[in-house]
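Agenda item 2: pyridoxal-5'-phosphate complex prediction
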Amino acid sequence: MTAATTQSIGLSAPWIDERDEELVLDVLRSGRLSLGPAGPLFEERLSQAVGAPHAAAVSSGTAALHLCMVLAGVGPGDEVITSPYSFVASANCAIYEGATPVFADIDPDTLNLDPGAVAAAITPRTKALVAVDIFGYPCELDELRAICDRHGIVLVEDSCEALGARYKGRPLGSHGHLATWAFYPNKQITTGEGGAVTTASAAEHELIVSLRNQGRLETSSWLQHGRLGFNYRLDDVSAALGIGQLERLDAILQARRDAAARYTDLLAGLDLETPLADDADHERSWFVYVVKLPRGIDRNAVMARLGAEGIGTAPYLPSIHLQSYMRERYGFAEGLCPVSEDASARTMAIPFHARLSREDAERVVEALRAALEAA
Ligand SMILES: Cc1ncc(COP(=O)(O)O)c(C=O)c1O
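Presented output:
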């Protein structure tokens, strides 16, 4: 088969239906494109979905993380520990507030922060921990929280990839501390661009609501600002799409679980590692499907071969500390986080979304089989 004769298979695709379209149209026709009723309704539904008392919608997952840094009081001279095996936003948020990101290494199986490495990275300057649930797999929340409590550090969970995941039987977002969410179109649900912060604390929620809205106070008029804030609001068109998406959250999550299970079946017997299975404490929400190639296999060659067949792949995820701006700014180099670096060299995302058909999954796996044989 060649790309010329077959449809290409993209890495991800949002699932938008007629109900989503209607809800968005309703907002457009209402004329209330921002600060209307769709935002609070989306927030109410999100807080129900994740079991958090409070949810504040914001303009992106990055904005959500940034606001959490402000809330944590992170500033110049502080250190914020996070995972190198993540999307850059989970480290950048600390830099925005003048702090230094400190990378602790990950566990080779979960690809999430290794609590032992986090404990070893703590210094008197550590202000916060950004714990990521990478690829939707819950991080070691209890252990990480115990470390934070012991040292008086603020725990922020970057659950941007993990809507619907559960830790020790309870949904991420319901564990009390600050958690951030993202709704870019490759995520479990989308608002186009968008994000949210959830928390059990009414005071934290109130502060986020003010900070996202240019520092306005609940009591102040439009041109009165009680603190330095940002425009990180989510508009109503985006929120309406989010409402539609949340109405189908269970179906979306189930479809993604089914698509992942199909891949895991089809990939059995190939010389690669498939994603870690759930256990009693960790229930993944499927964000991407990432395989780990054996050492010595030329990943670029595999990706090029799949690309030639119209199949999307990505080298998920590069280690953040080795990005050029991180090297230049902080002098980070190879060897800082060997487990993350090894994962970064071998992991690869293959096409994955809620409506990936069996035929497409089979085509991806056949192409991958051929590419591995050739490599
Ligand atoms: C782990 C993680 N954190 C943060 C973000 C940032 O979200 P956004 O792209 O909405 O700013 C993402 C998005 O890809 C992510 O995967």
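Discussion summary: The chain has a mean pLDDT of 97.
Owner for follow-up: CH.
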